[in-house]
Write a structure and sequence with these properties.
By secondary structure, the chain is of the alpha+beta class. Among the domains are: 13-62, no CATH class; 157-286, Glucose Permease (Domain IIA) (Distorted Sandwich). 30% of the residues lie in helices and 25% in strands. The chain is built from 4 helices and 13 strands. It has helices spanning 2-14, 38-62, 75-109, 136-148; strands spanning 17-23, 30-37, 158-159, 178-181, 192-195, 201-203, 208-216, 220-227, 231-241, 248-249, 254-258, 271-277, 280-282. The strands form 2 sheets. Strands 3, 4, 5, 6, 7, 8, 9, 10, 11, 12 and 13 form an 11-stranded mixed β-sheet that branches. Strands 1-2 form a two-stranded antiparallel sheet. A hairpin with a 3-residue loop joins β8 and β9 (231-241). The N and C termini lie far apart (116 Å).
Amino acid sequence: MMAEREKDRKKTGLQDRLKLSVSNDDTFEELWYIKLTKSNLFLLIALVVFFLIGGTASLIAFTNLREYIPGYPDMAMRRDLMMNAIRLDSLEREIDLRDRYFNNMNSIISGHGPIESFSMREETGTPSSFDYYITPEDSAIRASVETNNAFSLSLGKITSEPAPNLANLHFFPPLKGMISSKFDPSIRHYGTDIVSGPKAMVSAVLDGTVIFTGWTMETGYVIEIQHSNNIVSIYKHNAELLKEAGDVVHAGEPISVVGDSGELFTSGPHLHFELWYKGGALDPEQHIAF
């Protein structure tokens, strides 16, 4: 009997109505109030805690605030980790290839045959294993490429003699220095390489407008200038570009700094200078005194 009374008293306590109010301290006027039972109060507190935790987790998961958590990697660190993983995978493969190569060499030097046959390069097949055939789509693409490249500078005619229309033009030397490699269309070298001191300034040869600035893997930082009389000058392997596409330049005005940027066709700081006239490559030494 006593246990039932105790149980009823606890149940009644949970169902007691509580009043939470906000009053004016001077006038005792009740401004706001809410009535809750103890069970509803506990439920309200649980919901508030749940939304606080959920909102905090969402901010951390879907915004950049997570990068401010101590120990959490930022964007640069994650990129470095990914690149290091890729390099490590490539390094493991290279080490495996070298080990197999040296094992074969040791076997051959010892008078035995090679342990295994392998290639230092990845191969997906041999030319004889492929079937070559021409489809209508291939022919259409080929015709389109040939049409679009009809005005390409790299496919233009080669002009080794001075152009008659340029005889009265005075070309400002882009760089004073020693010529290390001459114009030679037979090896697809359509310009002149000039070696000079480090940090030397490269100048525009004529008045004109910059039509391209950028970087390529082969030739590094490149700047191209369109001049009057259908002349285009190109400056490659720069360490730094001083102009942007659309800038108007004058003859003798600095446009870049000599460098050796680019992974191919460079063996040290120098300027590779090209001169084009009506889509054909000119020998710069025929027009400019370096």
